[in-house]
């Protein structure tokens, strides 16, 4: 059996439906870090939600894998009602134990490569207002507040926008 080669970089690949439980677990651990009063309880079956995202024909879920373990995830697709050249980054999480190791940078770079290959011109996302670490991550990569969707009073998320551009488009700083 061939194992992943050690190259100093994570393997970025499309997630598999059988990995939904591991992805939901990583998602929960990452979200737990920016909710000051704990992750809000709701009726969402996150394992099933991730399986649905992975199986969606009009979307994609990428995962970063290191030593056989998923350490980062990104989910994106064209949002309902948006132009075909717009993509929304619905979820982007790195396992907290792997922060500042380059996983997020590699995963973000893979998203950009896919978006360019798909002819996307604009990317949008929403980031939790209490997640200063993620806001700084996105800002270092060229994401800016979305002037078309300013926050309303009491919003829990900020809308950000990114110009996907050509081969080198967008800002980026190593992590």
In a few lines, what is going on in this structure?
The chain is α+β, with helices and mostly antiparallel strands and about 180 residues long.
Strand order of the largest sheet: 1-2-3-4-5-7-6
Shape: globular
Distance between the termini: 32 Å
- How many β-strands, per DSSP? 7
Rg, please? 16 Å
Helix content: 25-40%
- Helix-strand sequence: EHHEEEHEHEE
Report the major sheet: 7 strands, mixed
Which stretches are low in confidence, meaning pLDDT under 50 for 5 or more residues running? 167-175
Structural class: alpha+beta
Number of helices: 4
Proportion in β-strands: 25-35%
The mean pLDDT is 86
Overview features:
26% strand; alpha+beta; 175 residues; disordered C terminus; 7-stranded mixed sheet
Describe what you observe in this structure:
By secondary structure, the protein is α+β, with helices and mostly antiparallel strands. 26% of the residues lie in helices and 26% in strands. It contains 4 helices and 7 strands, in the order βααβββαβαββ. It has helices at residues 20-31, 46-55, 103-117, 132-140, and strands at residues 11-14, 59-66, 69-77, 86-94, 122-128, 144-145, 157-163. It starts with 10 loop residues before the first strand and ends in a 12-residue tail after the last strand. Mean pLDDT is 86; it is low at 167-175.
Layout of helices and strands, plus pairs?
Layout lengths: L10 E4 L5 H12 L14 H10 L3 E8 L2 E9 L8 E9 L8 H15 L4 E7 L3 H9 L3 E2 L11 E7 L12
Parallel strand pairs: 4-5
Antiparallel strand pairs: 1-2, 2-3, 3-4, 5-7, 6-7
Helix pairs in contact: 1-2
